[in-house]
Amino acid sequence: MRLLSLLLVVCSATLLAFAHRSELDTAPPDRTRPGAWTETQLRTLTLAQQIGQLFAVRARGVFQSVDDPDYRELVRLVEQFQVGGVIFFQGDPYSQAMLANELQRRSRLPLLIAQDTEWGVAMRVRRTTSFPRAMAIGATGNPDYAYAVGYVTAREARALGVHQLYAPVADVNNNPMNPIINVRAFGEDPLQVATMVRAFVRGVQDAGAIATAKHFPGHGDTSIDSHSDLPVLRFDRKRLDTLELVPFRAAIKAGVQSIMTGHLALPRLDPTPNLPASLSRRITHELLREELGFDGLVVTDALEMQGVTKHFGVGEAAVRALEAGADMLLLSEDVEAARSAILQAVAQGRLSRARIEASVRRILLAKERLGLHRERLVDLNAIPYVVGIAPHQALSQTIARASLTLLRNEGNLLPLPDVPATPRQLQVIILSDSDDPATGRFFVQTLREIAPDDRIASRLLDVRSHPDDYRAALEAAARADVVLVPAYLFVRSGTGRIRLPERQRTFLDALIAQGRPVVLIAFGNPYLIMDLQRPPAVYLAAYGGSESTQRAAVQAIFGQAPFTGRLPITIPGHFQRGDGLQLEQVAPRLAYPEEVGMSTQRLYRVDSLLRAAIADSAFPGAAVAIGRGPAIVWLKGYGHFTYTSDQRVTPSSVFDLASLTKVVVTTTAAMQLYEAGKLDLDAPVVRYLPEFGQNGKERVTIRQLLSHTAGLAPFHPFHRMGITTAEAVRQAILSDSLIYEPGTQSRYSDLGMIVLGWVIERITGQPLDRYAAEHIFRPLGMRHTGFRPVGRPDTTVVPTEIDTIFRHRLIQGEVHDETAWILGGVAGHAGLFSTAEDLARFAYMLVNEGRIGGRPFLKPETIRLFTTPVDPERAGTRALGWDTRSREGYSSAGRLFGSRSFGHTGFTGTSIWIDPDQQLFVILLTNRVYPTRENRKHLAVRARLADLAYEALIGPPTLNLNALLP
């Protein structure tokens, strides 16, 4: 059931988006006997053609002209040599798919196309989905993630013409000094690795591709990179049975269709000097085929690797691989020479023709099972509906977040506050073992989306850096409050490198010795801490440097994501397998809708709605924030400040909230004072504000003010009555008479909330704006929220109305409401300015039971009390301060929000609605009163926006992996 509940977002969103399907997906079923095509084709092939089927050659999925030498050679190998397959390396989606189709058209038999896809198709193809490394998946402890990655990777691969995935890595990385496997493995525990391998294999093959477990019999405990030399493993069979072979047995049991043999010598299994497993009959045939019972495709690791070429020539390596039991020979340095050697071996009786036919039969049968005999081409039109889509990105982001492993957190330094009470200077020192100047750029960019840009300084130290650069970095770090060190130090094929470069090791030791808090993030080799003299204050293992992993790390460092990962390896002298500090999320994060059970495709309708509304002159500009549970999934600005302005509205644009002031400030303050025992809801207002007790108002209660049942008039147009000073307005309200018996009905009243604002000031001894800044905005991290003085226009604020009656000018940066303006811009009913970004933090707090910043801001029971209708019979939908959704007729919450939903609107065209049962919130800020308040077209937009947000729900507020299933 867990897998069924885990996999729904991606597939339902995928199916929603997929108007196109590939021909491969829609081909009619083949009703002929399985294997019939294979046997027919096998009989038509000459020996030379059969041998050609055994080879898989290199291809690049990039644009190549027809006279490019590499392209011409590839075409020759396909048309004349008649190779059985190609292996795509680096490329682009369309270029690769187009070339795959062209090669398939040129080939007499369908080609079996393969690719390395250990962490998604992005391992080789740009602009596809990049997943966290296998060790990161191991750190999540969740095999459902391994299944999902396998499934999605296979779907994207098939869309680009690839049938065979060279993944998963089934090696057990129990050697910290392994220079080639490292984070490519799921971990060091054979049972955990077996579980993940089994799940990944099932995912790949359920999606219609061939999984390849590698590198048999196990490359995890080597200290030599087989790209550079031949590793020798002196293990006996008992050791292999209890460790290296465990994941391969699991893969075979799961039905894996392909296994790659490694260039590893095991002299206690086969004493032939310098003989890798890939060329050993005892290991490939006797152990893998006969003892373990594997009857699928056996492919060699690349025959161009020095683990083979140092001891065997091209022809001898090919012959020995076939003698050992291999079916496909990958990346031979010279296919012509290799074929000649095989032909000669057959002629000499060293290889039988039956042996060749057995391998060719397996290869053809694999192609037949894939349906390539019926349709070998891919539908190019389907690619954008499958590759790199939002549901796949959401899966990657979710896994990255779940994998982050916090191993040290000295002094509880993390999480850093995403909105600190006092500014902090952050120094980012990027360590890289490459010469790529873009390394770390995405990390810093993501960091600047959270922390103020002027508080972040960054520098890159890589292979090009001079000693002076290191000294300058130390000096800069000494002036910082916190030093972030994202370390992009990877184990790379062919380098044999595993340790920290000496210069960077010396630098890190000196940096940590300075005493400043250092946050070291291993975006690669998690063992790098072993090289340090002393540990940093914070050590975070992220296992890879994909964008999803970098984004997850930044969010977690600032409390916008939790730390839940567990170390899947042992780091000798430092940490044990299973270690990992657990920290909860304390602030909202930006996320893909699919991460919280919503659909990106459905939310695109919000764009259409808002753009159409602006075109219809409902308002010149708007900002929208939609969130669910822990995440903000839609945060966008639309239109401009005015219909003729070139100032674009963004999520950080400041709007006049009008009556949202009532809930964001006045009601929230009342909730806080209620919790503190300083405000009795059933006490008469005169207990706190004696001067209110005039003209029959002595018995009006605080609860009645909040529920708009106090008997007060809705409002008075004081600016038209000649009342134009704050004191005069105050006296007019205090001496006003009731217009109905309190508690008998509900009439929405600005006056009641103005009075409640005065009550709050009397209780707290602070002006309302100062109390709100100290007790609401600052704790919630609402940096751009507050009241604004009158008489000071501000062109950076979204304008409201062109006032032709009272102030006789465009109102911009001053409160629109005339009464609040007379009161100096600060009132309990209006006057607040804010942004969609800030209000999203406020709403996040409410849907997360009053918690933010790791602390309770409001009690859950207080939120329920103030958002529950007080008296539906007499007060209608009114709760305490908040409104609730109308059960009939028009509602600004639309038709679909649940019965416990609560919200509020503002006269200037603002609204906020929250459905606690769905943990969903929708915020709309507009300036619909520009240029005149007579415009009411925004009303339909409010309701429709709420419905669109609700219609985007496709599951519970977590990533549902069932969506990956067709």
Can you walk me through this structure?
With 966 residues, the protein is α/β, with parallel strands linked by helices. It folds into 3 domains: 332 residues, Alpha-Beta Barrel (TIM Barrel), CATH 3.20.20.300; 184 residues, Rossmann fold, CATH 3.40.50; 348 residues, Beta-lactamase (3-Layer(aba) Sandwich), CATH 3.40.710.10. The strands form 6 sheets. An 8-stranded parallel sheet has the order 8-7-6-5-4-3-2-9. A 7-stranded mixed sheet has the order 16-18-17-29-28-27-26, with helices on both faces. A 6-stranded mixed sheet has the order 10-15-14-13-11-12, sandwiched between helices. A hairpin with a 3-residue loop joins strand 27 and strand 28. 57% of the residues are buried. The N terminus is likely disordered.
Number of domains: 3
**What's the CATH architecture of the largest domain?**
3-Layer(aba) Sandwich
Identify the overall geometry: elongated
Mean of the pLDDT scores? 94
Q: Which percent bin holds the helix content?
A: 25-40%
Radius of gyration, in angstroms, nearest whole number: 34 Å
- Low-confidence region ranges: 1-6, 12-29
Give the oligomeric state of the chains in this entry, treating copies of one chain as homo and distinct chains as hetero.
single chain
CATH superfamily of the largest domain: DD-peptidase/beta-lactamase superfamily
What's the story with the biggest beta sheet?
Answer: 8 strands, parallel
Q: Structural class of the secondary structure composition? A: alpha/beta
CATH class of the largest domain: Alpha Beta
Distance between the termini: 17 Å
Strand content: 5-15%
